[in-house]
Specification:
Blueprint (H helix, E strand, L loop, with lengths): L8 H33 L10 H25 L3 H10 L15 E2 L5 E8 L2 E5 L7 H4 L2 E2 L3 E2 L1 H5 L1 H4 L7 H4 L1 H7 L10 E2 L4 H11 L4 E6 L6 E7 L37 H10 L5 E5 L15 H8 L6 E6 H7 L2 H11 L1 H10 L5 E7 L2 E6 L1 E2 L8 H8 L6 E2 L1 H12 L3 E3 L11 E4 L3 H17 L13 E9 L2 E11 L6 E7 L9 H14 L10
Parallel strand pairs: 1-6
Antiparallel strand pairs: 1-2, 2-3, 4-5, 7-8, 7-19, 9-10, 11-12, 13-14, 15-16, 17-18, 18-19
Length: about 525
Amino acid sequence: MNVSLDIDPWSAARLALQAAFFLTLFLLVKQLFDLRDAARLKHLSRPKGAFRTPMTGLMALFGAVLLYQATWQLTGLYRPQFVAFMQSHDRREFNPAHWIQRGRLLDRRGEVLAESLEREGRVQRHYPDGPVFAPVVGYTHPRFGASGMEAVVSRRLDGGDPNSLKDLGELGRRILGGDRRPRGRDVVLTIDAELQRLAVERLGARRGAVVMLDPRDGAVRVLASVPAHDPNRIDAELFSGSDPATPLLNRATQGLYPPGSTFKIAVAALALERGFNGTLACPGDGFTTASHYRKIRDHEYYSARRTGHVWEGYGRLGLERALAVSSNVFFAQLGVLQGRDAFQELTERLGFNGQILLHQSTYGRFAIRTGHWPALAANDQYGLAQAAIGQGRLLVSPAYMALLTGALANQGVAVRPRLIATARPEVLARFMHPDVANRLAAMLRRVVTEGTARAIDIPELAIAGKTGTAENPQGDAHSWFVGFAPAERPALAVAVLVEHGGYGSATAAPIARDLLQRAHALGLMPSASKP
């Protein structure tokens, strides 16, 4: 997506004056050389005052430039763009732009996530929870610049975006008036600090990500990525890439993973939209599109084989039951039945192979990667079967899966995620037909009451969701859970990924349950039993 340059009138005027200066300088110098050459060619003595006029003009022009530079520096302190530029590119300690006590970043209830403190006569940025909120707030540093929301809302934090003309020059007046600690403006985020801390605590030492949002208005309540960097300790080593834990990688928004069985939600939506209402045979020995390909089998086949038994399979399954038991054999066949062209249209509608912008400004942007849909050959039915069970070369980000699940909960409408509390909700796209979304929501409720996620069923919450266990070539399978609650009146959607966490039902799903329970206690979602 294109980033606007957002040039303010002051900057435009400055560029115009600079252009006029160089043009005038060129004309004056040219006039001097023309007079000199004319005098030489005609063997004339220099006329009295012939050079005086252009020289006077040249000196006046240089004087004007010096005056302009002085006023630019002074009036620049009245403008947020100039202040941000000076903070980013002028590292000198006596730079007055570094005297500003930037506004605080606050959670939805006013808890401080980032603030400016004066220590030993210098203003320093402080992050009370260290790495917990780093995936959201980012950092700001006089040498390494800014990232995350610190960059996106830098203008406001420095005192910009005034509410009236009277406020426009307040920041500059305070600096010029001798106040060496002028204050910027606070920015309230949609994040819930208590839920964010719980998500990081439940991930523990494991690498992973948790995203929770309100599907109705896009407000992001949790955006956790573990491990994360500590914004209180930014140094060159952090950017060297030597840490295998990659703490600078925001796994929630930029990490791409095979989605495993959670992608069966999209496959089921596609089949419902295309009128599928039948059953498919699901033998225990599995399914493949050609004899030279490895068979796609259900989990029960391997469990039986480990104990020396033979699993007979599920027999014939309909879509609802197949989703509840998460049958790979069923969905591999279902994907092949839909065909590559139908999948291509679906992934384009869902925004694959791109990014979704949350917020941007001249100083930064916050976006999430959607996912990678591989370019399949027309005859690659096995690749299609693999993608239909969330494997192969198909990849998604945790934040995108929260968005997709939220769209299903919101009757098929995806609302752009937002981190700024005052930002207006914005419809992003319609991912699926309302009837399809409602039918699929009921099926996902059955996944929790009777299927692979029944261990996290709490009637008061009425969670609907889907587990996922995604194979990967780097080790143990990734653990997934995506869902929403309450099922009939969804107020929150959640996606949990635990790298190498094994079964989704055992690792990711309990984390989602705990977060939804705490959210309910905080009043962010109603009880399922209440009207």
